TrEMBL record:
SUPFAM superfamilies: alpha/beta-Hydrolases. One of its GO terms (cellular component) is cytoplasm. This is ABHEA protein. It is found in: Cytoplasm. Keywords: Cytoplasm. It comes from the Eukaryota. Pfam families: Abhydrolase_11. It comes from Eubucco bourcierii (red-headed barbet). Residues 8-123 form the KANL3/Tex30 alpha/beta hydrolase-like domain. Transmembrane segments: none annotated.
């Protein structure tokens, strides 16, 4: 439903997006993945995290959209280890996402300096260093 793609009814609600992502993980037979979620993918990843976060080994939101759709209490229930990542030049979505995601009890924050919204493209080495450091900490 973004750009030139037509709206897809099968992922029109948070529930159907959770079911869609769950179906993909089952079809690929992926057990306890780390879900990396930049920007628009937050519409899929955040509801999945809140409903089925126990199926994830970790979560890496990168200035995702949709963080304001959930309450601090909902975030506080999630026990998935999380690395909140954003670029310091992303003063709108990155900062906004942090305000909501900081309620996740098992989170760390990594701010990439001199990087914008697509911080993984602006500073790929710093991004990979932060991501790999987080992955090494997971059991």
């Amino acid at each position: 439903g973004y750009g030139d793609s037509p709206p897809a009814e099968m992922v029109a609600t948070a529930q159907t997006r959770v079911a869609f992502l769950d179906h993909i993980l089952q079809e690929l037979d992926i057990q306890r993945p780390v879900l990396v979620s930049p920007s628009m993918s937050g519409r899929f990843a955040l509801p999945f995290l809140l409903v089925q976060g126990d199926q994830l080994a970790g979560f890496v939101p990168i200035a995702p959209v949709g963080t304001k759709d959930y309450t601090a209490e909902q975030y506080q229930q999630v026990q998935t280890p999380t690395l909140i990542l954003y670029g310091d030049h992303d003063t709108s979505l990155g900062a906004q996402a942090l305000q909501s995601l900081r309620h996740l009890p098992r989170h760390h924050v990594a701010v990439l300096h001199d990087a914008g919204h697509a911080c993984y493209m602006d500073k790929p080495e710093d991004f990979h260093r932060a991501l790999l450091g987080f992955l090494r900490q997971l059991k």
